[in-house]
Amino acid sequence: MQWFAVLFKKPREQRNLTETRANAALQRNLPVDVIMFAMSIVRVALDVPLYRCFDYLAPGVTRAAIGCRVRVPFGRRSVIGLVVDLPAESDLSAAQLKAVEEILPAPVLPADWFRLTGFCASYYQAPLGEVMLSALPAGLKRLDPPTPRPPKAAKQLPPPSPEPELTGEQVAAIDAVRAAGGGFKPFLLFGVTGSGKTEVYLRLIADALHKGGQVLLLVPEINLTPQLEARVAARFPAAGLVSLHSELTEAARLRNWLAAADGRARIVLGTRLAVFTPLPDLALIIVDEEHDASFKQQDGMRYSARDVAVFRAHDRKLPIVLGSATPSLESWANATEKEMRGRYTLLTLKERAVAQSRLPAVQRIDLRKEKAEEGLSGILLEAIEKRLVRGEQSLVFLNRRGYAPVLACTSCGWISNCRRCAANLVLHLKDRRLRCHHCGFETRIPKACPTCGNQDIHPFGRGTQRLEEFLSARFPQARILRADRDVAKSRKQWEALVERIHAGEADILVGTQMLAKGHDFPKLTLVGVVGADAALFAADCRAPERLFAQLMQVAGRAGRAELPGEVLVQTQYPDHPLYAAVVAHDYAAFAATQLAERRVAGFPPYSHQAMLRAEAPQMADAITFLATARAWPGCDAHPAVTLYDPVPMRMAKLANLERGQLLVESASRPALQAFLAEWRAAVDGLKLPSRLRWHLEVDPLDY
């Protein structure tokens, strides 16, 4: 198959004439070859939940049309699709095929992009059209695309920022990537917080640019882009850096995407969807904070951007660097386990890049012995007081926003349950609202108990708002700044918040995981962790991994400059092995323990999983559907695959829908994939109860 970059677009008048002639031929019942002389068959992928493409007639197209966007009739409307093939014949007769309304101008999508989206559709058991169209910016899928703005006048570029001196470990890591030469080579860059992973990225980016290549740099969250974007732009002002994430306007996203696709932008910085951006000269892929769950799409096509990036590097035969202070156990096993055959090359940065900087000292505070005031121990409050005296910053970390997790009546036992979900309504005192953080439902705070009328109802537990209130009363002289989704709802709000922190406008920070990773605050010397115990005994096998990563990441915010850092972790289980590993900053020991447990239990990475989930107004309908899918006769032909019984999901009700799930597991990934391809087609043919919806997720992160 040949691929071309340009397709000649016929004038509308000529297309209409050709279509008129073809229709006339059809009406006269002329032979198919006569009709096809005027009209060719094009196979088009559409953004619909169907596992097939659709055939249309088009005037005299060639194989140059493959990869072009087309406007076609679908039902009673016109939609945008992608030409994926020019078949010699169709399952439908020529008389049954509709004509393409318009072949749209460039961009024409390249062959490697088709391979990438095709892999995703196959591996994640998703409709090809949904994958392809969801990977495009919205401006390319609209029937009325936005009018492009004229290019801005070129600005005088500042000189590149100076390169800092490298540590020996950084030099060794960079040399290892350089020594690999060309071809596919995955690296796991394991570096403690503050060890200079970003500087390693920048040196490797410089190498790729020098060779005339493009670089794709992926980050898990939008909040991590401003600081990193500024640093990359300062180092490479002439590289045409563009960012791609969901908070860009439609026009800006399209403009940046086109700049990357035609090679004008040499560095692309983006969140997970940026992994699908066409890059003709791609030479290097970097995935920062590769362990982060945000790389996994949780709706629509449920893909992992990190894993897709690895496939893309393999397909394009180029190096990929996965960086983290707390790698995912899958990546760690790929780099260290013998049976994984050394799939990844491990690069280690054990020391911080700033000579005077040291890893913070971590101390466990035993809440069984220490009296707490509003959830904060005397030791932590005293440590905050010391930082206030010295003019340093403190962070109180609680990964729970709002004022309190629940409002309750002590008289009758009523609690603020969400009427739409199997969850509690969270008290947001400043807004005088009760909110569900899962479905978005909210209501006013009742003046009395809705059940018994008792006016003495109380908040139980605490969130960031409650801590902020207490600390404001406890330290009236301190400037307290809260950082969570309630105060930083957009990227601009977040950037303004970070600027205030850097400017020294806050003495005490109260924040959630938004502050836990990727940020460098030189004056921050104390981190107090509150409420970490809740994740220790969760049913999810990944809960300890997430907790450890969260604690190590937030601990890494302390003492990143010359000032020494300290981390205080409040817990009722100070002897837990997880906390011992945190105190020692020993990720390797923690990972070894977790992998040993997973090996015994048969959990990933020693098994491969998929999850069939269903939701319906009634749980019985969801469970019955899953049981029917499990009883598919073809299961017997796949003895290497195990199907478990259907069960309600951990959050059994969400947005007025009852939810169930069925776990599928195999020790062999190829065996699982072979089964899923057949099983999904069989499940797709089942008759569904009214309003039941289902989806199949490969490599699930949540159980």
In CATH, the topology of the largest domain is named Rossmann fold
For the secondary structure, the number of strands is 30
Using the alpha-carbon principal axes, give the shape.
globular
Helix count, DSSP H or I runs of 4 or more residues: 18
Q: What would the average pLDDT be, to the nearest integer?
A: 89
Tell me the helix content. Answer: 25-40%
Structure overview:
This protein is of the alpha/beta class and 703 residues long. The chain has 4 domains: 12-110, 3-Layer(aba) Sandwich (GIY-YIG endonuclease); 168-349, Rossmann fold, CATH 3.40.50.300; 361-403 and 462-597, 3-Layer(aba) Sandwich (Rossmann fold), CATH 3.40.50; 608-698, Alpha-Beta Plaits (2-Layer Sandwich), CATH 3.30.70. The protein contains 18 helices and 30 strands. The chain has a 7-stranded parallel beta sheet, with helices on both faces. Strand 28 (647-654) and strand 29 (657-666) form a beta hairpin. Helix 1 (12-27) packs antiparallel against helix 2 (32-38), helix 3 (111-123) packs across helix 4 and helix 5 packs parallel to helix 6 (197-210). The longest helix is centred in the first third of the chain and has 16 residues, at 12-27. The two termini are 42 Å apart. Residues 1-37 have low confidence and may be disordered.
Helix-strand blueprint:
Layout: H1 12-27, H2 32-38, E1 39-45, E2 54-59, E3 69-74, E4 77-85, E5 102-103, H3 111-123, H4 128-134, H5 168-179, E6 185-191, H6 197-210, E7 214-218, H7 225-235, E8 242-244, H8 250-261, E9 267-270, E10 282-288, H9 305-316, E11 319-324, H10 329-336, E12 345-349, E13 361-366, E14 372-373, E15 376-377, H11 378-390, E16 393-397, E17 406-409, E18 426-428, E19 433-435, E20 442-444, E21 457-460, H12 464-474, E22 480-483, H13 491-502, E23 508-511, E24 524-529, H14 543-555, E25 566-571, H15 577-583, H16 587-601, E26 608-616, H17 619-630, E27 641-643, E28 647-654, E29 657-666, H18 669-684, E30 693-698
Helix pairs in contact: 1-2, 3-4, 3-9, 5-6
